[in-house]
Amino acid sequence: MESQLDWHQAKALLEWQIELGATEATLDVPVNRFELTDKAPVKEPAKAQKQTPALRVEKVDPVAVAELATAGAQDLAGLKQAMAQFEHCQLKRGARQLVFADGNPDAKIMIVGEGPGRDEDLEGRPFVGRAGHLLDRMFAAIGLSRTADDAGGSIYITNVVPWRPPQNRDPSPIEIDMMLPFLRRHIALAKPEIIVAMGNISCQALLGKRGVTKLRGQWATGCGVDVMPMFHPAYLLRNPLAKREAWQDLQAVQKRIR
Ligand code: URA
User: Fold this and answer.
1) What confidence score (pLDDT) does residue 125 get?
2) Closest among 167, 187, 171 to 89, alpha carbons compared
3) Residue 247: domain span
4) What residue ranges line ligand 1, CB within 6 angstroms?
């Protein structure tokens, strides 16, 4: 509180109080003298700080984990199970289910697409939406079907990633890399004579490069197998004029398996 007295008045008042026997100044805040002690306050030992155990951040290499998981897969059922148990791919969190493969595993031709879309995520099978219907019609045109029982007349279909990417975005290079050991093992177990790489993501995974417009129509080698890069059926739906090139590529495939 601000004093109304000037310096001289305050000093005079103090001297007068001392004369009356005052030994202490009264403070604005009351002090309970009974609680005061003569002894110097004992400094409380600093409370032992609760030690938080150091967080051990273990760096996991998802590609190494995937390679280890695939090494133990002796057949396609085992591989599917290993994929279902793989927890390092973020795509799994947003997907309804794993989309492993469809068609005849004994087929001479293996089709590798990019990843499941909405319809595939709902149904659990690759290429069942609009792009899938076009894919079926394309291969029917050269006498092949996913429902055929004979190896020569059928196709086997899978994708680079088995979980639907959110908003149908492209799988990232990291996601492609960590799922690649599964794709390699898939190919090794299915033993196709020919792989058809549908679109850029598939070319990236199998051939290590993109640019399907340039790559299409030319035989390449990926995972030790002859690969024919082709336009993705979804691209053909948007660009019907490119069906002419797709037809040429299908004929090259047909010629090769004869
Ligand atoms: N596109 C793909 O690449 N794969 C599918 O399974 C469906 C659409």
Assistant:
1) 98
2) 171
3) 64-257
4) 113-117, 120, 126-127, 131-132, 159, 198, 234
